[in-house]
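Q: What would this chain look like folded?
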Amino acid sequence: MAIILPHIEDLNRTAYLPPEGDIQTFIDDDHYAEMVKEWGLSSGKNVKKEFWYKEKDHQRLVTIKGYQSYGTTGEFYTIIIEFQDGNLSCIHPAYLKEMQSSSFGKAVIADSAPAVQTAGRETEPVEPAKEKKAPPAEKKVSASPKKTAEKKEKAPKLELPADKVHFTAEVKQFALTWNPFNEENDEVVVLENVVIQQDPVIEIGLAWCSHSKTLKKLELSPGDKLEFDGKIVKKKLAKGKDAEEAFIIEEPVHYKVNNPSKIHKS
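A: My prediction, written as C-alpha cells:
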C-alpha cells in the first residue's frame, strides 16, 4: 500500500491540540477493536486502522494512539490521534467520525464573509455589535443542600489496578446500553459478586462488559460462574433507550471490564 505523505503546507496549517496528562493505551488488538466500534468509527470484521483528519483546506491521515476518559464516572472520551509526522492531538470521537464523511467541510460557513475591498486595499470585515444581555438572575439556593447531595449516586472509592488482573464473578443479567456514537443500543453482560483475585482481594460488586463474540460463544445464562482475566475501569453503565424491561438494569453499575480473556465458565 502506497504511503501518503502530507505536504509541508498541511503540516504548518494543522491546528494541534496536544494531550495533557497520561494517555490510556489499548491492551491488545481486541481492546482496540472494541473501543473503535464503540465510538462508531468502524464496523464489520475489518477494523479500520487509519482515519482522515480534515480541516477546511486540507486533510491528513491519522491513527489512534490511545484515549483519555473524563467525567465523574469516566463515561466520556477524548481520542488521542497521531499524525504521520509523530504529532499528537486530541479530538472528540463524534467529531472524528464526522470527518470520515465525504461531505465533511463542504457546507458553506455563513459567518465567513470575505474581506471588504476599500480603495484598492484589503481590510478586515467589521464585526457586528454584540447584543447586550441582561445579567443572569441569581440562582436560588436549595434549603436542604445535604439532601440533594445524598440523592446523587456515588461509586464506592476503590483503587483500581492499572494492569490486567484475574477475576471471579457471576452473570447477573443481560442489558442494553445506549451508545451515543453509533446512536443505537449495545448489548452488555452485567456481572455481580465481582472480585479481583489478588492479595489482598478487591471486592467490586457489580460490573459490566460488552457482550462480545467471545462471550456469545459461551452461551451465558444468569447464574453462571466465571473466571477470567481483564482490565477494569471506572465507567458507569448508561441505560438503553426504549429497551424492553428484561434488558434494563435498575441498580447503578459504576465499573466496566474491558476485553475479558481466558474465560472459564462453571
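The chain has two domains: 8-99, 165-265.
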